[in-house]
Automatic annotation (TrEMBL):
This is DUF538 family protein. InterPro entries: At5g01610-like, DUF538. Transmembrane segments: none annotated. It comes from the Eukaryota. Pfam families: DUF538. Gene3D superfamilies: At5g01610-like (2.30.240.10).
Amino acid sequence: MADKKEGGIVKKGHEEGIKMAVSILEEFGLPLGLLPLEDVIEVGFVRSSGYMWIHQKKKVEHNFKMISKLVSYDSEITGYVSKKLIKKLKGVKAKELMLWPPVSEIIVDDTPTGKIHFKSLAGITKTFPVEAFAAGQ
């Protein structure tokens, strides 16, 4: 794991970690409310590979009200970020009926569709309006 983090920028603590996570989402055209984090310990990003990691004190569940979707964020979240895309995502699950399939990829469409797609390893793809993941939702 340390090799993935080599050459990465690391921010420690909640305030600095949140600032960095939001700036990464902004830079790559992803909705700013996509990662509702609490008690962040560390956020890191390796620009050359796009590898990002987030450590928070405990698992967080967030209800995105606009789409009535409960999402679980583990204490450790990792993935590879590029323009309008997070792939090989680990640590995020969205509740589907009684199951919590892991979300493995998030893709934001180019405008004008305004859609965001969540893919799971189980082959489930869900599409929602990007506005549902705006900051403060």
